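Morning!

This is the sequence you dropped in the shared folder:
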Amino acid sequence: MNKSKPVFSTEFKKDAASLVLDKNYSVKEASEAVGAGVSALRRWVKQLESERQGVTPKGNAMTANQQELQGLQARVKQLEWENMILKKATALVMSDSVKR
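The structure's back. Tokens below.
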């Protein structure tokens, strides 16, 4: 028998963690209320606390600010990569024109 691991959306995780942080549910009460495991909910609570303090997670962010920050960081990385390619192409064209 193959048990599949449930997949929860980022919004669901944020809402579940908010029960503990904002509504004073215990982790156990919140996990029973939303149907998620206690250890998973503990991780979500810890992540949401960190994000609220401004720490960007390695995985998918829960808060809108951190999601925007992750998107901007990805865009910067893409632009830096494109810039590197353009520099190499320019160097190649310049070296080719010098040889002629």
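Headline: Residues 10-99 form a domain with the Arc Repressor Mutant, subunit A fold (CATH 1.10.10).

More detail when I'm at my desk.
O.
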